[in-house]
Amino acid sequence: MITWKNRLAVPAAFVILGASGATAAAQEVLVIDGTPEAAACPVVEELVGTVEGGPDVPLTSREMSLLALDPDGGIWVAPEGARGLLVRYGSDESVPEVRIEARTPVTDLPIFIRSLAWLPGDALSVLGSPGIHLRIEHDGEIRSRSSHPAIDYVGSVQLLSDGSYVMNAQVNAPGSRARSVHLVDSDGMIVQSLPGPPVDAVTLPADQMPYVRSLALTPDETGVWTASRNQYQVTLWSLDGVHVRTLRREVEWFEPWTEATSPAVGPPPPRLGSMATDPEGRLWTQILVADPNFEVRPPADPTAATPHVPVDEVSRQHDAIVEVLEPGSGTVLAHCRFPGPVRLLPGGPWLIRPSITSEGHQRFRIFRVELASDG
Hints:
mainly beta, Neuraminidase, six-stranded mixed β-sheet, five-stranded antiparallel β-sheet, 2 helices, globular
C-alpha cells in the first residue's frame, strides 16, 4: 500500500454563476480557482494487479484506455498494436491465460477495439469499430455478437448495472450527428442523445476534438459527468438530457486552448483525460501536463502508419495531475502530481501506472485509490 500525502493543500474558492432558485439549480456553474502554495495529496493507493506485454502481446501506453478488471481478479487488455486481439491475465502477470481475436459478424475481419468494460456480475462488454458489440465470458467464450452500423466513432464508454451504457460516439442517426454523448440500451439502440457543450464553453478545435468527451457516471447512475479535452470544465447531465451543473477550474497550469502544440515543436498543452467517481460521489480527474524539463524530441519514425510514442518517451514529455473534487461545495480535496502518464478507470476508482521493464516491455500496475481517512 502506498500513501501519498506530501503534495498540495488546496484551499479552493468558488463563485456561483447564473439565475437564482429552481432555474439556478439547472444552470449552476461553480468556478473553482486559486493556486495552492502548500502540498497535500491525501490519496492511498493499493496495488491490485500487474500486467506485462511482450513479443506476443505488443502493449503500448495507449492500452491504458483499453483495460478492464473482472470480479475474479482477471485483467483484460486489448493491445492496440494487434487489431482484434483481446487477452486476459490471471495469476501470471506476463503470460495471458485467455487469448481471443474479436472479429466482425459478417465479413469475419478483426475489429478495432475501442472500449472494454465489465458488466456487473455478467460478462465483458467489448465495443469496436465498425459498430460491433461483443459480450465475452470469463473463459473467453463469446456470448453474443451484434452489429450497430449507426455507430461510427466510439470513445469513452460507461456501463450501467442494467446493461445499458453511456457512450461518447459519433452516430448516423437523425438529430444526433452534432451530438457526441448518447444513452444506449443493452441491445445497442440509442435511447437519448445529450445536448452539445454549454454555451459558456470555449471554442473547440476544428479537428476530431469537438467529438471527444471524457465521461464518468455518478454512483447512483442518474447522471453523467462530461468534459472536452482542451479545457478544465466538467458538466453534469441527468440521463434524460438536463444540464445539472458545471464545474470550471481556473488555474494557471491549465489555460483553455484551441490549437495543440506538437511535441516535436514545443511543450504540449494540458489535456483533460480520464475521469471517475467514487462511492461518495466525489469526482476524480486526470490531466496530462508538460514535464517541467520537457525537451523537443521528434518521433523516431514520423512516417509510421501509427506513430506511437513509447511510454518512456511519453514519461519524459508529460506529467499527470490527479485531482479530487467535491461537486457540491466546489472544494478540491486532493491535488497529486505524478511523473509520467497515469489513467483513471471507473469502479474503484482504479489508477493505472505504466512503466518499462528491463527487457523493454510495457508494464501496467493497477491500483485501487481512495482518499486517506483523517485518522
